[in-house]
Amino acid sequence: MHALTSIHQDLLHIRTAALQAVDPALAVRRYLQRTSSRLDLGATTWDLDPAGRVFLVAAGKAAVPMVLAAAELLGESLTSGVLVTRYGHAGGAVLPPRLKLFEAGHPIPDENGLAGAQAILKLLAQLEPADHLLVLLSGGASALIPCPAPPVTLADLQRLTNLFLSCGATINELNAVRKHLDLLKGGRLAQAAGSAGLVALILSDVVGDPLEVIASGPTAPDPTTFADALGVLERYALLENTPPAVLQRIQQGATGQLSETPKPGDPLFDRVSNQVIGSNRLAAQAAVVAARRLGYTTLLLSTRLQGEAREIGKVAAALASSCLKEGDPLPAPACLVLGGETTVTMAAPGLGGRNQELALSAALGIAGLPRTAIMALATDGSDGPTDAAGAIVDGQTWNIIQQHGRSPAADLFQHNSFPALQAANALMFTGPTGTNVNDLLVILVAAENQDG
Predict the structure, then answer these.
(1) Is CATH 3.40.50.10180 the right assignment for the domain spanning 23-147+182-224+261-278?
(2) Which of 99, 115, 178 is nearest to 143 (CA)?
(3) At the top level of CATH, which class does the domain 4-16+281-447 belong to?
(4) How many CB atoms lie within 10 A of CB 440?
């Protein structure tokens, strides 16, 4: 018998397998191999002779586990380092004393993040040509290491981030703007490293894994321009509310009064190696393997899922209904896996996150359907400004919310998915997972003879 509780358990099993596949420490260990005098870093090799020093910079929600793995391999060869992660993501880790840890705000940058960014700049200023710099990047780094270029201030970046969080812009568009306001983003970290050799190991949280977008590309050439950044502000009608210093810098850059971020073909990147060591695709593929082992016919539809969360929720519900009623694109028992990152264009000040809104929208579409459940998961364990990682909904969820005296339709309209799903006990709470590779959407439809 395969009751809804069993389908929920299957989804939790799939979730565990997906997250284990993108464990940051394991990803670093796969790429770093140490001998007595040499360090192999994927496509690059460093000779660890006494004349050179090894420095480390890490930023993102997975910074701590990535750094612990790297520090273990480097041992006494590691001179010093700076890492910045989100509050609550350090996990009480004990770091070597030569490493300085900052916990900072996300998605709104804060003073701690600014202090961390300044410490990174100070470290970069120490580098000499014989030195090596290992950079470990993961999701959230853009917000975690704000380093505003004059006349822009931290307060300006905070205000701008709030504007973007409610306008529906993509991460590519947001980062095109960020890169032109910052002293580290858009290849400027690599630029500040001078002639030192640089290897960046990157855990991708961006659809398609574009190096110039992940963490706002601090070690990658930037194909975007000040004019592109200005175009983003115009496209989302943000010019009137943009902080004056931000607008001044972008307009000056767009008219050629400021130097651009380093571009593709710049010889400074000849000494830089960027390597993606973990991604949404790895997590999605692990979810597929886990579902097949549970007996589901499984299909990975895409890892490039984007769009408005509530609209994607409708699509997820339609796919589930089609599997259940027509056996298309898969007959039950069926599992469909998608990865990517949706957006929410805020029209009301509700509480929730993109995965919760997607799940609540899907709950409407599958209301009343038997043996069907949908999981929307933020792989970092934090969906929007909440402590939920997402939600699991089924054919009963919509009705249960109503039974608790709420209007799920009103909650969906007001972007108030958290309390609605909380009423149905549909929220997932994982705590910080230590990784961050976008979101996963998993649709399960059990076979008819399995329904309990």
Answers:
(1) yes
(2) 178
(3) alpha beta
(4) 27
What is the predicted pLDDT for the residue at 181? 98
Query: What is the identity of the amino acid at 423?
Result: A
Looking at the chain, the domain(s) classified CATH 3.40.1480.10 span 4-16+281-447
Q: Mind listing the pLDDT tens digit for each residue in 361-396?
A: 999 999 999 999 999 999 999 999 999 999 999 999
List for the chain the helix, strand, coil content (%; round to 5).
Answer: 40, 20, 40
Give the residue-averaged pLDDT of 59-77.
94
Cβ–Cβ under 8 Å, residues 376 and 391: yes
Tell me 448's DSSP state. Answer: G
Residues 6+ positions from 313 with CB-CB distance below 8 Å: 357, 358, 359, 360, 361, 362, 363, 364, 365, 376
Query: Which segments of the chain belong to CATH 3.40.50.10180?
Result: 23-147+182-224+261-278
Phi, psi for 264 (deg, rounded to 5): -55, 135
> Average pLDDT over the chain, rounded to whole?
94
Helix locations, 183-279, DSSP H: 188-192, 226-235, 244-254
Q: Which residues contact 290 (CB under 8 A, 6 or more apart)?
A: 13, 14, 16, 17, 18
- Going by C-alpha positions, the residue among 112, 47, 125 that lies closest to residue 83 is 112
To 10 degrees, the CA torsion angle through 330, 334, 338, 343? 100
Task: Determine contact, residues 351/386, Cβ cutoff 8 Å.
Answer: yes
> Nearest 5°: phi and psi at 125?
-70, -20
> If pLDDT is split at 50, 70 and 90, which confidence band does 347 have?
confident
* Distances in whole angstroms, Cα of residue 323 to Cα of each of 33, 332, 353, 398, 440: 45, 6, 27, 20, 19
DSSP letters for 175-191: HHHHTTSBSSTTTHHHH
Cα distances (angstroms) measured from residue 90 to each of 85, 434, 445 = 7, 8, 37
Provide the token pair at 136. Answer: 């470990």
CA distances (Å), 434 to each of 19, 25, 32, 61, in order? Answer: 9, 9, 19, 7
CA dist., res. 256 & res. 286, Å (int): 47
Q: Which residues contact 191 (CB under 8 A, 6 or more apart)?
A: 262, 268
Given a cut of 70, whether residue 2 has pLDDT beyond it is no
From CA 420, how far away is CA 405, in angstroms rounded? 10
In this structure, how many other beta carbons lie within 10 angstroms of the beta carbon of residue 240?
7
Q: How many CB atoms lie within 10 A of CB 407?
A: 13
